[in-house]
Amino acid sequence: MTPVVQLKLAPAPSKYDFEGLLRERGIDLPPLAIDTLQVNVTKLCNQVCRHCHVDASPQRTEMLSPEGLAKCLEILERHPQIARLDITGGAPELHPGFDAFVERAVALGKHVMVRHNLTVQLDGHPQTGESKEYLPQFFARNRVEVISSLPYYQEFFTDAQRGSGVFKKSMEAMQRLNKVGYGVEGSGLALNLVYNPVGPYLPAAQAGLEADYKRELKDKFGLVFNSLFTITNMPINRFKLHLDKSGQYEA
Length: 251
Prior knowledge:
- By secondary structure, the protein is an alpha/beta fold.
- Helix content is about 35%, strand content about 10%.
- The chain has a 6-stranded parallel β-sheet.
- It is globular.
- The mean pLDDT is about 90.
């Protein structure tokens, strides 16, 4: 009797299965180095942005534990090749251990980056009312690199994405950062902005959009910043819900 050999073929990877597509094409993408530790310390936020892919809001209570913060600092101390700590949220400044976390990382000789939504300076803590107006001075003292999302340089589009009044608060917060040297040439204090579209499309060319932002913010509000980064959002959580409701998810 002739033996029967059964071959089980692996299913073709979905067009959304990135790892499967890499395997199918024989592509290996090993990390070349680890030079940045990015930590999401909380999902608590003073804003409720419709494009938020981590679903942050004033009602969220999730916080990285003190033990988790200590472990991150231990990793930074043990691995000198990790030169940067990138802190995000939610609004990371709302974590009760945020200030000490930044100071300890700086004391270890690390460059600290904070994903700062600007308006938290004026809104403060949404649950306790604690003021956060000290943040520009705190950032400057610790030479923190500030990275802030600003949907557009016009009020209508920013408020449509992030909520009524956000644009005006963002302009005031940027003025406070500029006042302590952020974005000012020669200060060494970096203020970078981020643009990301709210629909299923790619942003405009980064260089051209940066030039538009710099011109409009300088001419209309006297504001300066260093660089604009354009990104696209992850279609998950609240952003996915927005795409589903507007019939744009498949696109």
